[in-house]
């Protein structure tokens, strides 16, 4: 049985070119990039080159890139770091109900220490309203953090319009772009973004690497204390081989971005057409036209997500949901709850499929046929 991986939004396989780039680094370039001897200088050169390549991808300056251990650290650094550094200006933060938990839990922590957080609702397609952002803005708002593209349903938020709205406000604008980076073109200047989080393992790079873009002049309190790495903003010896691998993955993603977008949209259509041809009862959660091309969230009426995912796994198909199985009970996806309400059947009968490296027309079609037969069996 050939296994088919349709969970690239959770993590993605390492690209062979990235692997080839990392192995020599691990074997030979072991110097600490903060050391002044030749071993350290060699590592520093690779680190500097990686920073240049990553900055170029989002049209940023090299000194505006802080390498992190991944998207979670980048989100925490942006939200908690900006809040603590700017609390003398106010203690109000705006975010949305459908953020990744790295954002939501950081905001909840800030609430515990005295900050006031507004959680904006979304409509049934998973979009926030720019008017809601405007209405929520206060004189004491210091940070607005809104994800670029949602990791569960793929909804792309009106980032450029929000950036324009905040242009003359004191609040800094952060976006969690972990799912959008490498898939959509991003120019931090056009979008008027002050901070942006990205992660390596979502774009076929190694786990344990990510970055936070911080616009020059944005004050940020560090979360780690120790050395003076990353221009004194993030203490700790840099993960050089991971960062070099990340930079290689970024270049691969940027080179093939438009082709990938078209391919992923074809994969979506293949799945939808196959479900229809097999008379499967289903509907799409979110928008087809304005969503991340690699994410497809599907509601199958009459199914139970836990049972469905187990059956898919037994058939060799990897997919996921926003539900977390805890001690035998299922906690509904907070994203679907925000979109449809906690009593909707959609929160317990929806599955996310996400495409990436290694998928092709044939295995996506094969997966869709298998999914169709499983759904029909479970609902018969």
UniProtKB/TrEMBL annotation:
One of its GO terms (molecular function) is cysteine desulfurase activity. It comes from the Bacteria. Gene3D superfamilies: 1.10.260.50, Aspartate Aminotransferase, domain 1, Type I PLP-dependent aspartate aminotransferase-like (Major domain). It catalyses: (sulfur carrier)-H + L-cysteine = (sulfur carrier)-SH + L-alanine. Residues 4-365 form the Aminotransferase class V domain. PROSITE patterns: AA_TRANSFER_CLASS_5 (PS00595). Its cofactor is pyridoxal 5'-phosphate. Its EC number is 2.8.1.7. Keywords: Iron, Iron-sulfur, Metal-binding, Pyridoxal phosphate, Transferase. Belongs to the class-V pyridoxal-phosphate-dependent aminotransferase family. NifS/IscS subfamily. NCBIfam families: PRK02948.1. This is cysteine desulfurase.
């Amino acid at each position: 049985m050939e296994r088919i991986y349709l969970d690239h939004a959770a993590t993605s396989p390492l690209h062979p070119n990235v692997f080839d780039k990392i192995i020599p680094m691990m074997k030979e370039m072991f110097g600490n990039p903060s050391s002044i001897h030749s071993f350290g200088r060699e590592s520093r050169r690779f680190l500097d080159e990686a920073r240049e390549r990553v900055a170029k991808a989002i049209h940023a300056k090299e000194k505006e890139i802080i390498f992190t251990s991944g998207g979670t650290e980048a989100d925490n650094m942006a939200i908690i770091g900006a809040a603590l550094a700017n609390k003398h200006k106010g203690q109000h933060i705006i975010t949305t109900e459908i953020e990744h938990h790295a954002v939501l839990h950081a905001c909840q922590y800030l609430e515990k220490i005295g900050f006031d957080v507004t959680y904006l609702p979304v409509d049934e397609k998973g979009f926030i309203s720019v008017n809601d952002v405007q209405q929520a803005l206060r004189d004491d708002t210091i940070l607005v953090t809104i994800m670029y593209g949602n990791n569960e349903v793929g909804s792309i938020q009106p980032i450029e319009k929000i950036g324009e709205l905040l242009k003359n406000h004191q609040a800094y604008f952060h976006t969690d772009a972990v799912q959008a980076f490498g898939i959509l073109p991003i120019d931090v200047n056009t979008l008027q973004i002050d901070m942006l989080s990205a992660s390596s393992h979502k774009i076929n790079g190694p786990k344990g690497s990510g970055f936070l873009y911080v616009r020059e002049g944005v004050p940020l309190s560090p979360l780690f204390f120790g050395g003076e790495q990353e221009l004194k903003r993030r203490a700790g010896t840099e993960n050089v081989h991971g960062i070099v691998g990340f930079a290689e993955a970024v270049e691969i993603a940027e080179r093939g971005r438009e082709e990938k977008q078209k391919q992923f949209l074809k994969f979506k259509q293949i799945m939808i057409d196959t479900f229809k041809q097999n008379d499967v009862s289903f509907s799409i959660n979110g928008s087809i036209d304005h969503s991340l091309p690699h994410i497809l969230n599907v509601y199958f009426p009459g199914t139970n997500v836990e049972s469905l995912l187990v059956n898919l796994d037994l058939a060799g198909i990897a997919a996921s949901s926003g539900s977390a199985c805890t001690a035998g009970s299922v906690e509904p996806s907070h994203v679907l709850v925000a979109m449809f309400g906690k009593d909707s059947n959609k929160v317990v009968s929806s599955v996310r499929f996400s495409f990436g490296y290694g998928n092709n027309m044939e295995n996506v079609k094969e997966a869709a046929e298998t999914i169709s037969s499983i759904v029909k069996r479970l609902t018969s």
